[in-house]
Amino acid sequence: MPVVQQGQINTTALIVPDVYVQIVPPQVSLLNGVPTNVLGIVGTATWGPVNAPTIVGNMADYARQFGAIQARKYDAGTQVAAAVLQGANNMRVVRVTDGTDTAASGTLTAASSSDASAICAAINQGQSGLRGPSNFVVASATGSTVTLTSKYTGSMGNTIVGAIGAGSKASTSRVTVALPGQVPEVFDNIGAAAATVATATLTGGTDGTTTISGSVLVGVDTVPRKGMYALRNTGASVAFLADCDDSTTWSTQVAYGLSEGTYMVGVGPSGDSIANAVSVKATAGIDSYAFKLLHGDWVYFNDTVNGSVRLISPQGFVAGLLANLSPEQSSLNKQLQGIVGTQKSYQNLTYSAAELQTLGQAGIDLITNPVPGGAYFGTRFGHNTSSNAVTNGDNYTRMTNYIAYTLNAGMGKFVGQLQSATVRRNAAGTISAFLQGMAQQNMIGNAQGTVPYSVQINDANNPPNRVALGYMQADVKVQYLSVIEKFLINVEGGQSVQIARQSTQLA
Asked: For 45-54, what is each residue's pLDDT tens digit?
């Protein structure tokens, strides 16, 4: 009485009389959507891995892995802080350098060369049953000298202090490695003669930020990938290059956004004029739903770490908001948190209708106060750079990427199956179930309340000659809910206005 998985036996060639049980998997699979809250940020830092996407959930995570935020252009931490203020909590941060970054180092002296080797082994390999290798330094020995080199390049390494002395047990040594803001690492009872107490503060670490440019932030798309390209396959649905106001990078960012399903957020230079912004955007030839361009009206931000109110790019505020919104939503009219002012508002100026129209026609978004909802800071259009009125909304970009990449991630299970009427129904049912779930959550729909999607997998779009070649085609249509951008109210008032009301009294 064998029990087998469906398809493991030939049910038309059974000889032995018996009970044959086939376990049949659920015929309609269920798709769970891919995450839409992953935010990619590329910029500089004082510590941490270079060109390696690192998970950051909050500012404490960032400080632990990359150091404190810096009051300088291209700083990743500053933009992380702006994004966190909007509720962003699932970020992938890529640190970049200009190649001149160096690691800090310092030396300690052991009793002998063999003792130095034992100390290095404890630091680099960890101690059995005690602790793992150091997260702060790498140790090397030259004679009786132990050189401690910071694990990462950057100026934060200059704050590392190493100390050596007698261990808790007789005839042993202890090494302590301390990094401000972190729990000190203690390597005790090392099998080396008790060392003379000494300390060393590491020096020589540099960040490699002197010549950061747009090309450095973009990076290269060959292994090992660098800069923006290090974000490939991280699932970042929204991403930006911190403070990158170089228009020559925009077309490259568009290509990346289209290839990864990532909504890229760019920005113009600080203090840019409207006329120049429109001209530069036209020259760059950017007209794509994959790229959102913010006007160079930069934002004043209260930097409590460095104790100043300083001017930063608006990217972190807008990208953080988008990552925190459900994909059917637009950034239009949503309140942005943590903004002290903009370059425009600091001059007690507001945008005229003509200025807004010029920017809107050019496909350039911006942060203003007020917005239609009231006297608060928010994005004024909720648009990308596409000139197509049906694809230029934030919601189009994010919903299209969400649906496409969810189907891409979940429908591969049908590849390799036999194309039968049952398999077609199962595939169509799987897609329909996903879309029905979106409709129930009011992520898709229409004002008429009709079914907002259709899925076709039948002979009409799968003719025999295509089926014979191994193709199965699904034609899926999804109707997005419209974002209200222009609310027109007709008001007729006056002493002569007549109001006609239908009586509801019973006869």
From this structure: 999 999 999 9
Task: Determine the pLDDT at residue 130.
Answer: 67
CB-CB contact of 135 with 155 (8 Å) = no
Residue 241 Cα distances to 131, 399, 471, angstroms: 37, 22, 40
What was the pLDDT predicted at 25? 80
Helix (H, G, I), strand (E, B) or coil at 96: coil
Contact indicator for 77, 61 with CB cutoff of 8 Å: no
In the CATH scheme, what architecture does the domain 39-98+210-395 have? 3-Layer(aba) Sandwich (3.40)
User: How far apart, in whole angstroms, are the C-alpha atoms of residue 267 and residue 239?
Assistant: 12
Burial class for 180, CB neighbours closer than 10 Å (0-12, 13-18, 19+): exposed
Q: Distance between CA 134 and CA 136 in Å, rounded? A: 5
The region, left, alpha or beta by phi > 0 then psi within -120 to 50, assigned to residue 310 is: beta
pLDDT at residue 182 in the model = 92
**Residue stretches of the chain with pLDDT short of 70:** 128-130, 503-507
Q: Are 45 and 54 in contact (CB under 8 A)?
A: no
Q: What is the pLDDT of residue 129?
A: 64
Q: What is the pLDDT of residues 125-138, one digit of tens each?
A: 988 666 789 999 99
Going from N- to C-terminal start, the domains of the chain cover 39-98+210-395, 105-201, 416-507
| pTM for the predicted model, two decimal places | 0.94
Amino acid occupying residue 389: A
Q: What is the dihedral of CA 190, 194, 198, 199, to 10 degrees?
A: 10
- Residue 29 has a pLDDT of 78
Provide the 10 A C-beta neighbour count for residue 397: 28
- Return the CA Rg of the chain: 30
Q: Are 111 and 122 in contact (CB under 8 A)?
A: no
Q: How far apart are CA 186 and CA 126, in angstroms?
A: 10
pLDDT reported for residue 505: 63
**CA angle (232, 234, 240) in 5-degree steps:** 70
Query: Considering only CA atoms, which of 171, 176, 248, 260 is closest in space to residue 217?
Result: 248
Q: State how far the alpha carbon of 317 is from the alpha carbons of 213, 342, 462, 492, in Å.
A: 22, 12, 46, 41
- What are the two backbone dihedrals, phi and then psi, of residue 106, each rounded to the nearest 5 degrees? -165, 165
Cβ neighbours around 361 below 10 Å, total: 10
